[in-house]
Write a structure and sequence with these properties.
With about 160 residues, the protein is mainly alpha-helical. It has seven helices and two strands.
Length: about 160
């Protein structure tokens, strides 16, 4: 698990926390379900700015999946496709995401970003996800309500 990396180091390589085809699987299930329901909108919370190098969080990936959705569904082939994939967070910084969520009443105490939590659930405060989260909360001038390990709390 990468620890204590700078933001520039985080974007250099695809990290060890990469899950092959994760967003492809999520979007494929959402696409199938949305066509079944005749829904027109899929939302996914990918972010291309403050991220750790995941290839399926980029606008190019979402655009390619949108093209796939237009080709791979009955509604798309029949020209009835009105489905759109929305990425409201894709161009926001973590600071902006924290501020937006706070303004919408998100209880961030019920969320976590950590890839290496303690057995009791405390965030490590040192993995890429924790560092980006802490940076976002600090820049937004909000206190992150989750528990961090003691050594991380002194950062």
């Amino acid at each position: 698990m990468p620890k204590d990396r700078t933001p520039s180091e985080m974007g250099q390589d695809i990290p060890a926390t990469y899950v092959p085809a994760r967003n492809t699987i999520f979007l494929a299930f959402a696409l199938a379900w949305s066509e079944t329901l005749a829904a027109h909108d899929i939302f996914i919370g990918v972010n291309a700015l403050d991220y750790s190098g995941y290839p399926d969080c980029r606008p190019e990936y979402v655009s390619a999946f949108q093209h796939l959705a237009d080709l791979a569904t009955k509604a798309g082939v029949e020209g009835r496709q009105q489905l759109r994939i929305h990425t409201p967070l894709i161009a926001l910084s973590k600071k902006e995401i924290v501020a937006l969520g706070t303004s919408l009443g998100v209880d961030y105490g019920l969320t976590t970003s950590c890839y290496d939590p303690s057995p009791s659930g405390e965030a490590c405060g040192r993995c890429d996800a924790c560092l980006l989260r802490l940076k976002g909360f600090a820049e937004a001038r909000f206190v992150d309500p989750i528990r961090y390990r003691t050594e991380a709390a002194t950062r």
